[in-house]
Design goal:
Length: 297
């Protein structure tokens, strides 16, 4: 608290825009003492695996506390934003915005990236971002790609989120959860990289198998590279259904996911309305919306 006060005074801060909850409790309890405006940015959907009704009740309590303390809330999900109505007028729905800028000296081409990853020209690279097996649906993705393999399609699932060398304990846990051996050559664990757009360019299809998702930045990145996408039919990715190279499958259904992957991958080089989608969710428009909120605060 003392350090935060010193930072505010030193830099003459008028507004704090807080993400992911690290200092939320301190800011709620001390907002008036700190004498700054505060906005919380909610990037999440309701948590998977616990009572949504209970979470909504807690959200109402938070909203009352925020209103009492003059705190505003931005949510990347319209459904979640509606749960902050007790904040009064200081709650806003602002979907994420995409920036194509990355701090890399040279972004690899499709061919360079596939060569580095060891993906053959005959293989269909399915790119997947997932740090949480059940929330992100990695189990569904692994089962779906295995089904594609059994049908004769050469799919490779590239997973970012577990590091390039998961521990044996992690691999055993994945196999117990999915019934799929994660050591199969068609399942690859990739390193995290600042050059994410190269991964997307190298891909033949991007898969979002999430059971819960507020707004998938990975889906938007894939669209920006004209990559076909396969998404579960959840509210958090419903905005992407307007993309002409989007295939939707029933949430949690690996068989339907496998069918959608094989349907989507043949459109890899087709034209799309991707630029229109990217423009709608551009970082420039996101900044304009955020600045407007700052002015209202």
């Amino acid at each position: 608290m003392t350090e935060l006060s010193e930072i505010i005074e030193k830099h003459q801060i008028d507004l704090i825009h807080s993400h992911f909850g690290y200092l939320h409790r301190i800011l709620v309890q001390n907002r008036r003492k700190l004498n700054v405006k505060v906005i919380f940015h909610d990037h999440m959907d309701y948590s998977w695996g616990s009572s949504v009704l209970k979470q909504k009740f807690q959200q109402m309590i938070y909203a009352v506390a925020y209103r009492f303390n003059g705190i505003g809330v931005i949510s990347v999900m319209e459904k979640k934003s509606n749960g902050y109505r007790l904040c009064g007028k200081k709650h806003w729905y602002v979907p994420n915005g995409l920036s194509r800028d990355r701090y890399v000296a040279h972004s690899m081409t499709r061919e360079e990236c596939r060569e580095e990853l060891g993906i053959k020209s005959s293989e269909k690279f399915c790119f997947f971002l997932g740090w949480d097996t059940m929330r992100k649906g990695l189990d569904v993705a692994m089962k779906a790609v295995e089904l594609c393999q059994h049908s004769g399609a050469e799919f490779v699932l590239g997973v970012v989120g577990f590091g390039p060398n998961p521990s044996q304990q992690q691999l055993d846990k994945l196999e117990n959860l999915t019934g799929v051996n994660p050591s199969h050559p068609y399942i690859r664990f990739l390193k995290s990289s600042e050059d994410m757009f190269a991964y997307h360019r190298a891909a033949d299809v991007y898969l979002s198998a999430s059971r819960f998702e507020a707004f998938s930045y990975g889906v938007l990145e894939a669209i920006s590279q004209n990559v076909p996408i396969v998404v579960s039919n959840i509210e958090g990715t419903q905005w992407s259904w307007n993309y002409t190279k989007c295939s939707v499958f029933e949430n949690g259904n690996a068989e339907a996911c496998a069918e959608a992957l094989q349907e989507a991958v043949v459109t890899r080089w087709d034209e799309s309305n991707g630029e229109q989608i990217v423009d709608e969710y551009s970082i420039e428009k996101w900044c304009d919306r955020i600045l407007d909120i700052y002015n209202k605060m």
